Each structure stands twice: as structure tokens, then as C-alpha cells.
Amino acid sequence: MAENATTLATGLEFPEGPIWLSDGSVILVEIKRGTLTRVDTEGAVDVVADCGGGPNGAAIGPDGLVYVCNNGGFEWSEVNGLTIPGEQPADYAGGSIQRVNIDTGEVEDLYTHVGDHRLCGPNDLVFDTTGGFWFTDHGKNRARTRDRGGLYYAKADGSEVREVVHPLMAPNGVGLSPDEDVLYVAETHEGRLYRWSLSGPGEIAGYFGPGHRGELLADPEGGPLFDSLAVDAAGNVCVATIRNGGITVVAPDGNYHHVPFADPLTTNICFGGPNLQTAFVTLSGTGQLVSQPWETPGLELAFNR
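RESULT FIELD:
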């Protein structure tokens, strides 16, 4: 495991989407369990909402509710002591963006479609300071076919959702630069990090339609798979990395280094603690939430509480 890492919780069922709260607890999803779950400062684990399907990325919105990308679920397997997500499950009913009240446990579907297109596997999301949010749809895998994913922008009040970039190859983590003038997206199977310059909330500069490809920022050697990400206060993009499990830290100039963790399925990172200098990392294959002191403070998210 990374130097100075501390195990906060074990026995989680493929945790992702961590959100640090000001009381010191961490809200996260358990994808296999289908829940939104709280880990308190003593390591106690409590389910706060049953989302069903496959809750994935999560973020706090302008109304204080938690917005969840629900991917619709997976088939699951155990390989060498690791929990591994697989293909689209037999009971799959589609993906959605959900809105969750963590005080009452109430869950509602905010978006299930973009126009006539059913959401397939929403994966990760990030709010801007206007209250809108970007999200990725990773798609689903089946025995012989795979969906092409995309990048979307939506309003938190349920009034608008639109497709911005399509297709992308299994887009996963999504994040904004400190000034919200650059958007980052990680493609899982390609192991690449892309960026788009923004001209305003939900608007790509020089946009010419859904085929608008971003600028390639990082393409590390060795065939890593990229999962979710968080941006730090210096504008570095910290991408959870599968296969060579850890966090790949990509600077705005494209240089990068890797911080290893002891799980090949290191899937997500958020920042919290004093001065946001603690990284909270989900080790999904082994079902753990760990924390690690971080040299650069994290970027304060728009609506965290």
C-alpha cells in the first residue's frame, strides 16, 4: 500500500464515488451492494440509501442532495481474492442519474434518457459552480458487443440534459480545472486522459458538434486502465488507475507520476481533512476505503458540505 496509508473500512462491496463531509465521515457507493453508504470517523459502516442497480460516481449538488450515476449493475466474479465487475446483468433495466436525500434515504430518478436515447451506464459526474453538472456514460459490455459512451451536461433541477460529445471509448472519470475553464475525461480501456477548453457552463470552446474530440493530455505506457479522478488545487489531475493499481497524477503540462496502492482495482479518489490534504481512496477489488496524506491540497468542490 502507499506509504502512510490508513485503512478506514473493510468489507465494502466494490466501493467507489467517495465524498468527504465536514464532520469527517465519508459517503461512498457500494456498486455490488447497490447502496449509498456512510463510513464514520470510527470506521462504522451504515447504509444511508438503497439505490438499486449499480450506483457509481457521486457528488453533492446545490440543494445538498447527493447525485448518483447509476450504471444499471454488473455481473460479478471473484478472481484471486478480488471482486471483479463484468458484463451487463440479466436484470439490467438501463442506467440513470439519481438524486438521493442522505438524511431520509429517499431516492429518485432524475434522468433516464437524453432525448430518445436511454442512458446505458452513467459513471461519474462533477458539478460546476452554477449548479450544472457534467457526466460520463461508460456504456455496458455484453458477451459480443459493447456500447459506445459519451459526455453529457445536465441541470440539477431536472429541466435539461444534453449530449455534448459522442462517441467516447468507455469514458469514466470527469473533472474540472480550478478555474472551470478546462474539462477532463479519462477513457478506461484506452488508458488516456483528454481535456476540452470550455467557454462557459456546459459549453466547449469552438464546439463543432458531438464528434468534437478533446486534446490528449496523457497516455501512460504500460497499458493502465483509467477509472475516476479528482483535481487538486494546483490543477493536477489525479486519476485512479487499474491494473497497476494506484493514483496517476497528471500535471497540466502532461507530465505524470504514479502513486501505488495495494489493490490493482484502485478506482476513485477524493480529498478531505484539514486543508484538504488527505486523499480518500477506494480499493474496490479488496473492498476497502483508505486514507493517505497528500502533498498537494485537493480542489474544493462546488457544493461539498
